[in-house]
Design brief:
L-fuculose-1-phosphate Aldolase, alpha/beta, 9-stranded mixed β-sheet, 14 helices, binds 6-O-phosphono-beta-D-glucopyranose, binds magnesium ion, Rossmann fold, DNA polymerase, domain 1, 6-stranded parallel β-sheet, 3 domains
């Protein structure tokens, strides 16, 4: 048995390692994969086990599917896809080729393609919220005893597709906790089904729930305003910054890795450039630096030109809306000079009472200027503010401003935060939000 991106591959695999397979619409499929990853619908859980996968039909019943163990990769390349040449549900076997072995869910995808010839795309996502809603509202489902990656599930899925809409639809995998399958005639239509069902159920998730108030760091603090960093808290722009910086490094003939990119989070554009040039041991004049920063920014802006509200990180919009409806003031406090452009693309400008970004400060984070300016414009004392930050530089800035700080990410990296949460979808939210709101309401009286 092979360890797979969803635990274990349960079928017998015959795989021939080969160069990436070129199929039409791979770019479109890969863009859909990136979006699913950014929305947390495909990814890796806290124990390192991947979830979710997607595929597209090639010739006949052959299909290209994401490879096993790719859940942790934010942006896939053609090297991360595998062509399933044939599959046999009865014998539980799969024959495939490509640079990587096929996803553990290949049999399920195969069963769908085999059952209806008009289906050309299958996307398998995970979401507790959507899963619970679909079960409750009696969407087509596979039985609880049909476990992931098994012939039983493949047969159950096939039955489900044949009984429901044959060209496009959604199936909830009752025996595969949080698992949902969408299928359609095109990548675009399949993606649309997911985005619609996500919209339908995600709002139910952020519920202001009275729990463990005494445990919360917030209950002891009179919070009147919340200041949000943008990049990495509201939207994942780090990957676009990375592509643009990597191209600059390539120009100068050195490699710039994803782990190098971590060092640029929260850091201003010019300081980011200094770090990059330092990594490549490159020395250039101030004028050349300015030109390079402009080139990088033009490339970055081209990459974010098509950004849309679907890229807002999971739950953050609802979280900010809940704060506002409970009387908490909100501000944006970002190092980016592109934040206005991004807020407009995401259509979330109205979520903030005040926006302070790289265009309004002369000292970059970890200097507290950005947060202090936001607090001043909100007419709120720093000690009554809480900052949401994903970068170490931002957490230091919040602390230097004498504000509370909630880190978004890993506690191993964000050491000085008062509290660290994985993102805006976890249950800790109620522990933060409820006391925050209580405090605001008490102060309004
Ligand atoms: C921060 C990002 O928010 O903004 C950094 O985390 C980036 O990576 C900085 O360098 C400046 O952004 P911009 O858009 O002004 O180049
Ligand atoms: Mg950030």
């Amino acid at each position: 048995m092979l360890i797979s991106n969803e635990g274990y591959v349960k079928y017998n695999a015959k795989h021939i390692f080969s160069k990436p397979i070129k199929v039409p619409y791979l770019l479109q499929l890969n863009n859909a994969r990136t979006l699913m990853y950014n929305l947390g619908l495909i990814g890796v859980n806290s124990t390192g086990v991947g979830y979710g996968n997607l595929s597209i039909r090639f010739h006949g019943d052959e299909f290209l599917i994401t490879g096993t163990n790719t859940g942790a990769i934010s942006v896939l390349s053609p090297n991360d896809y595998c062509l399933v040449k044939s599959f046999d549900i009865v014998r539980n076997s799969i024959i495939s080729c490509g640079p990587v072995q096929a996803s553990s869910e290949s049999m399920t995808h195969g069963a769908i393609y085999r059952s209806v010839s008009e289906i050309n795309c299958v996307i398998h996502i995970h979401s507790k919220n959507i899963f619970d809603g679909m079960i409750r509202d009696k969407y087509p489902f596979t039985p609880e005893n049909a476990e992931y990656g098994t012939p039983d599930l493949a047969i159950a899925i096939e039955n489900c597709v044949l009984k429901s809409d044959k060209k496009e639809g959604l199936i909830v995998l009752a025996g595969h906790d949080e698992g949902i399958i969408a299928y359609g005639c095109t990548v675009e239509k399949t993606l649309k089904l997911i985005l619609e069902i996500k919209k339908k159920y995600e709002r139910e998730h952020i519920i202001v729930n009275v729990t463990k108030e005494n445990n919360s760091i917030m209950s002891k603090n009179k919070i009147k305003a919340a200041i949000f960093d943008l990049d990495g808290v509201i939207v994942d722009t780090a990957k676009y910054h990375y592509i643009a910086w990597k191209e600059i490094a390539k120009k100068y003939g050195f490699d710039f890795t994803e782990s190098d990119n971590e060092r640029l989070k929260g850091v201003s554009r010019m300081e980011s450039l200094d770090i990059l040039l330092n990594i490549g041991k490159i020395k250039i004049s101030q004028k050349e630096k300015e030109d390079l920063a402009t080139i990088k920014n033009e490339r970055y802006k081209a990459l974010i030109a098509n950004m849309n509200p679907d890229e807002i990180l999971y739950g953050v919009r609802e979280f900010i809306e809940s704060l506002r409806s409970n009387g908490i003031l909100t501000a944006l406090g970002s190092a980016s000079k592109n934040s206005g452009f991004i807020l407009e693309k995401l259509n979330i400008l109205p979520l903030f009472d005040v926006v302070i970004d790289g265009n309004h400060v002369s000292n970059a984070k970890p200097n507290p200027e950005v947060f202090l300016k936001a607090a001043k414009l909100l007419n709120t004392l720093p000690e009554n503010c809480v900052v949401f930050e994903d970068a170490q530089a931002g957490i230091e800035a919040a602390k230097a401003a004498n504000m509370k700080c909630i880190g978004i990410g890993s506690p191993k990296i964000l050491k000085n935060a008062d509290l660290v949460i994985e993102g805006f979808k976890s249950t800790e939210l109620s522990e933060i939000l409820h006391p925050l709101c209580l405090n605001a309401k008490k102060q309004q009286k």
